Amino acid sequence: MAFSETREDRNRGVVEPRPDLVREYKRLLVGKWDESALNDALALVRSILQDARLALKFRWESLHPTRGRRTPYPIPPGAPEYLTEFMDSLNSSLAPELPTSASMDDPATKVQRQATMATVLLTVQSLKYPNLPPFKIVDETGFLRDVQALLFNLCVLVLLPKLGAQDRNEALLLRNALHMHTVVVWDDEPTEQAQLRSVLLASNGHQKEALAWAWRALETTPPSAHDYMTKAQAVWMRIVDTQGPRAAIPFLLSLSRSAPPEYLPEIMEMAEQTWSFEEP
User: Fold this and answer.
1) Are residues 168 and 248 both part of a single domain?
2) How many distinct structural domains can be found in the chain?
3) Any bridge partners for residue 3, and if so which?
4) Which of 162, 187, 212 finishes a domain?
5) pLDDT tens-digit profile of 226-271?
6) What's the CA dihedral at 209, 213, 219, 225 to 10 degrees?
7) Is residue 239 in some structural domain?
8) Residue 265: which domain range?
């Protein structure tokens, strides 16, 4: 992977959200989180970086430039009949078009490439760029890291489960990138940092630790926040997973007293689901 050279600009690294990219982010946020959303999120982060004069190019993207039909092999003037027939045979059997994909020469599979791209895009703030003069990524609106957080969740929910035993190195690198993202990018936002760490720990099978971080995220979120119930649901699910449905009832009772009244129907629905878990 390398950053392609772009016009030197004092605004290099400055993130300025374009309205169309913001709309794409909102669409992905409320849409179905599947492989299509994963690919769109990868592309969205790259578009944001390109606007910040940091156009990314991965190795496999430059292995095969786009080409059309092959030029027929020339037949030398005065060539013997057997050679002319042989060259005619070669020309007539030429493939109609050369592939533009690097799949023949590059051993990386699609999922491995997705993991490599995600690893880079989640840690872009901490990378060094030897082919560029010193600069710092400036994300005053937080748009880049918000999109990265979306990519983070898609990696945990969609990409990590797709990485098999043969992709162990890519999986390890991706998990380390996910962890580094929480440390480097969200060090000034402990609530979001705790939420992302909880998601990552749960995916690693560390359910008790995931619950502890989910609690931390909820405790640092005011009830008036738009994502308060999202974090409450995360705690509820972690309690059910680690301690069983009955252990979640006291939490829901406490939540019904601390949450704004408009959330009561949602809390009641969570309680009904909790009791259904107990049914034989």
Assistant:
1) no
2) 2
3) 56
4) 187
5) 889 999 999 999 999 899 999 999 999 999 998 999 999 999 999 9
6) -140
7) yes
8) 189-280
The answer to whether residues 134 and 251 belong to one domain is no
pTM of the model: 0.76
CA–CA distances in Å: residue 48 to residues 15, 23, 25: 7, 13, 11
| Pairing outcome for strands 56-57 and 2-3 | antiparallel
Contacts of 97 by beta carbon, 8 Å cutoff, 6+ apart: 67, 68, 69
DSSP label at 3? Answer: E
Q: Are 51 and 18 in contact (CB under 8 A)?
A: yes
Beta strands in the chain (DSSP E): 2-3, 56-57
Q: What is the CATH number of the domain that holds 261?
A: 1.25.40
Nearest to 122 by CA among 161, 177, 171, 168: 177
How many residues are given for the chain? 280
- Residue 183 sits in the same domain as residue 196: no
Residue 81 in domain: no
Do 59 and 133 belong together in one domain?
yes
DSSP designation for 132: S
The contacts of residue 39 (CB under 8 Å, 6+ apart) are 114
Q: Distance between CA atoms of 155 and 178, rounded to whole angstroms?
A: 9
Give the pLDDT band (50/70/90) at residue 215.
very high
52: three-class secondary structure by DSSP: coil
Q: Give just the sign of the alpha carbon dihedral 101, 41, 179, 165.
A: negative
**Do 242 and 122 belong together in one domain?**
no
Q: Are 52 and 24 members of one domain? A: yes
Q: Counting runs of H as helices and runs of E as strands, what totals does the chain give?
A: 12, 2
pLDDT tens string 58-82? 887 765 544 444 566 677 777 777 5
